[in-house]
Amino acid sequence: MIWQIWAQSDDGAVRGLMEAGVDAMSRGDYRHALSKFDQMVLIAPDFAEAWNKRATVHYLLGSYDKSLGDIAKTLQLEPRHFGALAGRGLVYVQLEDERRALQAFEAALAIHPNLTSAEINAAQLRKILNDRDI
Predict the structure, then answer these.
(1) What is the maximal distance between C-alpha atoms in the chain?
(2) What radius of gyration, in Å, describes the C-alpha atoms of the chain?
(3) What percent of the chain has pLDDT over 90?
(4) H-helix or E-strand containing 35?
(5) SS3 helix, strand, coil % of the chain, rounded to 5?
(6) Which residue of 18, 28, 70, 73 could cross-link 55, Cys pair, CB 3.0 to 4.6 Å?
(7) Tens of pLDDT along 23-73?
(8) CATH code for 80-134?
(9) For 106-112, what is the mean pLDDT?
């Protein structure tokens, strides 16, 4: 339900870009999706989900620094965006920064304690970090 609320916009152009971008993502056409989300952040810079979707595409393309930048903007606009926090965790996993990844997943869980993917990732990271500290 909250994902639907975050994705809502009163602007028809933004809705069209969101639909086209999400459709392109679902087909694996990340470059096309990126172009749609680029347009969205230009015409609706205060729309947090535009930044979050673009962060997701950057992550999928392996552009982790760009993804982190868009996640930061998402969280500036919507600090309770647990999806962006979990996404930050996934980026840090790819960057092999387990401590920051765990912090991000724990921040997501503080907002949404039943976010299963974040709990699984956090548990795996705690084990990795505990094994390393032994």
Answers:
(1) 55
(2) 15
(3) 85
(4) helix 30-43
(5) 80, 0, 20
(6) 70
(7) 999 999 999 999 999 999 999 999 999 999 999 999 999 999 999 999 999
(8) 1.25.40
(9) 97
Q: Which residue has the higher pLDDT, 83 or 10?
A: 83
Q: Is 8 helix (H, G, I), strand (E, B) or coil?
A: coil
Give the chain's mean pLDDT: 93
- Residue 120 CA: distances (Å) to CA of 24, 92, 105, 115, 124: 28, 15, 9, 9, 6
The pair of structure tokens assigned to 89 is 């965790």
Among all chains, which residue has been given the structure tokens 């709990």? Answer: 119
Q: How far apart are the first and last CA of the chain?
A: 42
The separation between CA 77 and the C-alpha centre of its own chain, rounded to angstroms, equals 13
Contact 101, 125 (CB under 8 A): yes
DSSP 80-127: T-HHHHHHHHHHHHHTT-HHHHHHHHHHHHHH-TT-HHHHHHHHHHHH
Q: How many angstroms separate the CA atoms of 118 and 37, rounded? A: 25
Can you give the residue ranges of every domain in the chain?
Answer: 1-63, 80-134
Closest alpha carbon to 47 in 76, 80, 19: 76
